[in-house]
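Quick log. Single chain, no ligands specified.
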Amino acid sequence: MSLPRALACLICVCLLLARPAFALDPERSVTQFHHTAWTVNEGAPGQVTALAQTPDGYLWLGTEIGLYRFDGDRFTRFNPPDASSFPATSVSTLYTSRRGGLWVGFRYGGISLIEGGGVRHFSVQHGLPTSTVYRMAEDADGRLWAATFTGPLFFDGQRWNRPAASMAYPGQQARTVFTDRDGALWIATGNGMMVLRPGASAFAAVPGKVGRVSQIAQAPDGAIWVAEADGGIRPLSGRGEDAPSAGLLFDRDGVLWASTLGTGLLRFGPGDAMQRPERFQRSDGLSSDYLQPLLEDREGNLWVGSSRGLDRFRHANLAEVPMPEGSQDFAIAPEGEHLLVGTRNQPLQRVTATTRETLALSSVITAIQRDGSGDLWLAGPDGVWKAEGTQFRRITDLPLPTRSGVQAMAITGDGALWLSLNTPGLHRYQQGRWTQVQDRTGLPAGDSPLVMHADALNRLWLGFARGVVVVMEGDRFRAPWSGEAPRVGNVTALHEDGNAMWIGGERGLARMEGGRVRNVVPAVLEDFRGISGIVSDAAGDLWLNGARGVLHVRAVDVPALFGGPDRPRYEKFDALDGLPGVAAQFRPLPTAARSDDGRLWFATTSGLVSVDPRRIARNPIPPPVKILSLDADGTALPFDNGEIELAADTRNLRIGFTALSLAIPERVRFRYRLEGFDSRWIETSERSALYNAPGHGRYVFRVMASNNDGVWNETGDSMVISIAPNYWETGWFRALCVVVFAGVLWLLYLLRLRQVGARIRARLDERHRERERIARELHDTLLQSTQGLILRLDASSRKMAGDDPVRAELESAITTAERVAAEGRERVRGLRRHAGESRDLGAALLGVQEETGQELPVVRLVVEGTPRPIQLRVWEEAYMIGREALLNAFQHADATSVEIRIRYSRHAFALRIRDDGMGFQPDALAGAGHWGVAGMRERAARVGGTLKVRSAPSRQGTEILLQIRGSLAWEMAGFKGGTRRHLRRLLKRFW
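-> predicted structure:
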């Protein structure tokens, strides 16, 4: 087997395995399918001449004004992505190849191939004629054939070729081409039919004459059918429907559909295409009666192209029951596998899902009820009837002299008939007599029940307006619950479910069991409003007819309606599922029923529908997802390979996407996320995403979608979006900002140091002024007085004899006083030092030896680095530490040499004094009355420095080392010229 044929077989197998559940039910009439028409008013192009669907899910429309594609939501004109254009505008045919490419044939010659994101064009240079291309098809070997006005051609991969003479094709025309299930190639000539069987080398003529054939199709039994533009729809050998046709299609169930050129759409019944067809026309809602192409898509939807637009027929889970035109107010009750339907303005009807029978009861019927024996009772303004076989026996008139509608009816186990009339009152009919039940304890005064129900325990339930429910047991009426009451508003539905009673109303749903009422959670109230019909199916699932549609709650999901850990789950059927109108809210009630065959029936304000719970169609096909567009700040931008780069400062993004589910696109749901921006998935039904100011960076936009039945395509589509940064968002700019910030911090630090230094200088100046004041006071008072006292004592001592013992004591006191005066003068001299004096620390320390008057030891001064101005406080403390160290060396160490070493560096100040005399144990002196070392340490700490003492009780000498950080030691002379000048100096240093 050749590779193309193997691929063809594989595709066929895949299609069979993926047979959609949405195929049109052959048992229904065409009016029971959901029909949608798109005309020019809805955005569809007019004059649709060809239809095709590609593997990505798009529906393609060939029209006289160009090529369009449809995603279920929007029609978009397709233009080649490059600068080239199609050979013509008017499209005559479309064909999807087995490889997935779309072949486009044009009215005035030329063929184009759309495949892999590109377009190839073929014209006269590639062997094509300038005449119309009618149809295309692939034979069993995968060879593509085209039927044109001047004959058939086949494609060899590069060029189009006419069949060789040896293939025996007659004539110069080919009106259409078709490949059957066996791989035979059929071609309609001007007045006949030719076939090329698999393995044959030449065409063979098919007996019989045909007209201008526009379409060929194959029936399930293998018969070949033709649609003739000037004849009819018929099998190749036989007669059929006399209607000029341009389209022919057998759907997956073998039902024949045909488009006509002016009389609408024809549908032939299953199994017998020769019977009289159904006709669907513009008067039924068709966009036009002039139709051409037909297509069944992969989800089982039928598409029809017309002169005015596009039509779709799809499966609807709710099948509308055929009722007389204008029927209104449907009272329903099951009768075996049928349903009895009474109306306000039509005779009584007996219906099935597809048939209707008018019965011999023409009176208005507004209530039908089945009693415990299965007998049917009917009531209306004209009286009460009972069904007996095919006849209806009149039982009685209503118990009122005036005309009144029947709101509700029930039959209890004792044979009593109960009626609620819209002329307020509850009436009982028993043993041929009517009795009005009124003024009874437990019954609301002046109200008539809206609904009634006789339960399995022979109790009569009555539902009233304003949420009142009453149960009659024996001859007593009472509320059947304690505690919380139903919050349902006007009670319009009662349904017995085992030991529980469901209560439906205009504002919600409640369930009563064991005397306790539970109301549905607020999260579902919006969908559970206006409940006027409740019924259970054979599986125990709950079905409700309400203002928002028909609701289906599986039995396992019922508890979640009243709270709990699980999210409430239910299914809703509405107009998209074939539901006409909404559930009646007043009369007739109830609006839901179940027949003996398990079919469920629902009455609405506009019609009657049925559903078989066992045959609800599901769509198992996840929709292909595609990102369509990206607009940045209002400008549409192209993107290739799923990537795009955007300019800096892009503020607004709009990303368009779609999902190719054509069955019910209104129910397609999307989840999207912009990775790097969104923290979670966003779910929506909109087909675009908006982002405001996402900022620069690399983002990945991902989108997935689900079809109408919640089947998700979790692979979806994605696109990489890169937004360039502004210069202030770049790494180098941020690094520069860090550097500048650090520089500013450094300048602020320097400014702070200046402020601290200024404060210290101010304090030191204040200290110096105080010291000078004290020095003056000492000099002018204490020292002067002491000097005067010395002079007086000296004068007194001179008046005494030299051997007088008192004189010796006076002279000793004078000596002591002179020493005290000298020490006082030294202290005054120290107090009077100030910042204006020279602060040469080395010279000052050398002067200490002069103060002692000693010539030994030898003192040597070493200065390292360039001397720098030292803060006054630091200078004083360093001087006092050095002086103490020198005095210790002079007086206690018996040293022969002392070295003073002062080091000035950028980052630190150091003073080292080292001698070669007797050492000591530094720790041993503390606390023994020797406070010199401790005092030096305290002085060092006051200026933020450290003091190290290295010594031992031997002649290894002693070393004192004072170290202070430069930022604490040096005067900030650079700030004296002002902050601005210092900043200029710093900038010059860096730049």
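DSSP finds nine helices and 69 strands in the chain.
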